[in-house]
Amino acid sequence: MRITLDVTGSLFNERISTEMAYTAFHANFHLPHTMNMEIYGCHIIQEEYLLFKSKPFVITELGSAMMKEGVFIAGKTDITFTGVQSGSLSVYLYHPDKNEFLRDHRKKSVCLHRNWSSTTNEYRGAEYVLGGTLEWPRGQQELILYATGQATMEFDTEDCITINEYLMNPDKYTHKLENELLS
Q1: Is it the case that residue 59 has pLDDT exceeding 90?
Q2: How far apart are CA 177 and CA 24, in angstroms?
């Protein structure tokens, strides 16, 4: 069953982790007003933290045991940001043939940067930070978007497992994610 969660504002940065995820999106010359991307391997954080302003999600379709422990989505999540105003992207490139970062002649990691500035000085909106691996150019990313509208994520509940299940056997699910992403 596909469900959609509203992750607008602090909900995204507090409750959604993309640090273990693969991200696929098209970085155009200008950011679109509505930005869609596919993410493989999101983690829905359910723990209570004093610094979090948001409450854990209640997703009845997943059951209370999974919701208490934390959810790893071992499949595709469609994320949409509306009212995108500006953003930046930094990607530390991976070597195409090795499992390591690409290095320059001084042995420094090669990093590409891209900024999309706002055309006005108006309110930039909520900040959304995404980490993990970018599909292309392939590398470790930090994507920051500022948007004034709604942020949603849509996924299939059949792709959900507990975070502990993922942590006990990450290769099993990472391999599945890489196959989905590269197919």
Answers
A1: no
A2: 12
